Amino acid sequence: MAEHAGVSQSTVSRALANSTSITEATRARVIKSAEALGYMVDTRAAQLRQGRTGTLAVVVICRAGEAASDINPFYFSLLGSVCAAASGMGYQTLVSFQATPDQLFGKYEESGQADGVIVIGTTANDAAWQYYRDLSLDGRAVVFWGSPFDELEWVRSDNYEGGLIATQRLIAAGYRNIVHLGAVDSPQRQFRERYEGYQAAMAAAGRPASLQEVDYEADRETQGRSAIAAMVERGDIFDGLFIACDSIALGAMDELRERGIAVPQQCGIVGFDGIRAGIHTSPPLTSIEPDFEVAGALLVATVLGEEGAQMAERRVPVRLLERGSVRSAE
Amino acid sequence: MAEHAGVSQSTVSRALANSTSITEATRARVIKSAEALGYMVDTRAAQLRQGRTGTLAVVVICRAGEAASDINPFYFSLLGSVCAAASGMGYQTLVSFQATPDQLFGKYEESGQADGVIVIGTTANDAAWQYYRDLSLDGRAVVFWGSPFDELEWVRSDNYEGGLIATQRLIAAGYRNIVHLGAVDSPQRQFRERYEGYQAAMAAAGRPASLQEVDYEADRETQGRSAIAAMVERGDIFDGLFIACDSIALGAMDELRERGIAVPQQCGIVGFDGIRAGIHTSPPLTSIEPDFEVAGALLVATVLGEEGAQMAERRVPVRLLERGSVRSAE
DNA sequence: CTGAAAGCGCTTACAG
DNA sequence: CTGAAAGCGCTTACAG
């Protein structure tokens, strides 16, 4: 390559790396040769020399035995946003799906494969979270979406705000007995925050908070179904539901339909996550959606240790996605 | 590292690479030192020397302006399956989402970043397909999911079979006027194949085939809605629909509901792709699902140029996912 | 502004 | 079975 352009290897490198200490004439010649020869810089070699990788690892934690098509679609949206944000910052993304303990691998930094790790996915996989927690405590650059551990670097939705506006919306529509379907003691820290937002809105309206716990060991749809079944069989009175996650809400809606409870007439529902499947239920599911673009950008900025990616700013704003599972405000 | 274990660099390398020409005693010592020092082989350097990358690039072609949450969930399932299959073969996966012409990048092989490229995603993005077609014609290892070009290396669902069994199911349930919603001349080659399966089943039942074309420039849900709107407004008689893709079917079901046409009583529906959102429509959407595990494995084997990954075997088997949008067989 | 040389961290003939 | 040396394809001080 250097030979073809009649310059040294150093000059080729500088020309292609846009170094300023190169005549435009020389650069042009080098570039023309590169095109003629179909030459491209070997990224591996360049990065080895530079001591960086230009790559970020994104690991999606799954439940054991969960196929790709069973993964909560919310995480796929997040994955896409992270890849886009990384690409915008000039980083490639090494993606892997990890479920069982033997699949766990996060030593990307140690093996020179990535400059940092972004962990997203189900918090129910204890082994995985312990593994990545240790990695982080070991001083590696790893950032989590919605970590169960406060000491780690995390980025989360503004869950409190989401719970607040979801509940306010239900109250404004005139529903009286609004129950929250979720969990306060699960590793899903985000669930507790959503509950607290719900609680605040209820308190402000002078109404008691009421929580129906879901069994987070079960799959999400079963969680929703079982929760509704339990409430109905107990004879609970409710006409509004703020549900901690859309996938759970989908199961809840199925159960309500089978039991003949009409949404939104007899029961209003607001979910959380804004997944697309909620567009096609009947009625479509009203939900709280985080700003995915901000989520991706924040995760990437945080793992890269950017200035400005301070703790206080790691909250992703949310908005109400008005669809059809809540009747109009009174 | 070598110093700590009291051996040469070569020995360290051989011990860690499980070379047979190493005493177990030496290997044990090296491994212990590695653990003590937290040493790991630098993958980049190893691969540079070995002339391979141990990595596969997976590019998801999107529509311009499409956010991650708008991507057809089918492709996410496929993406997950590909990553899992690659991982099973000892390969990492470099994932990117590409929509606009300036985002197009597939020179992973040339730049030493991957040993091959797997292209999946919407066929409606002409520029992208041309780009990857050129890359493939240039001799690069690139394999496509459902390519519009016959000369490329592709892996596809057994679309003909899928169309056949979907239509047979509708016929068996006693629906008389079964229409296909799809396209025969779109770049989606798979759509034509699905139509042909439909056609064969109709012919075998002695019934005429009837095609309602969708406008593949629009987004998928609009395609479904508009197709139904057109049929109803024209006064077409139909009581069965085999729809080329679930995302289109979801839109069609929304439109049917709004127009008061009951599924499956007045109209039976079978979609294609088996996306999860179809579980929560009412009724749930009966669909044809490819075996994702086989799809991922075949894509990976093909791009790696494995023996046995012959053309004839690049068809992914499909099965009927019985849900609720077709009434029981008579 | 450009070139010759060193070196990033490995693996692999080549000797012994 | 193990070591010394070369080399994978780059970038970057160091000279000029």
From TrEMBL, chains A, B:
Q: Pfam family of this protein, just one?
A: Peripla_BP_3
Q: What is this protein called?
A: LacI family DNA-binding transcriptional regulator
Q: Tell me the organism.
A: Allopontixanthobacter sediminis
Q: Which GO terms describe its molecular function?
A: DNA-binding transcription factor activity; transcription cis-regulatory region binding
The protein's UniProt keywords, in alphabetical order, are: DNA-binding, Transcription, Transcription regulation
Q: Which InterPro entries does the entry mention? A: HTH_LacI, LacI/GalR-like_sensor, Lambda_DNA-bd_dom_sf, Peripla_BP_I
Superkingdom field: Bacteria
- The HTH lacI-type domain, residue ranges: 1-50
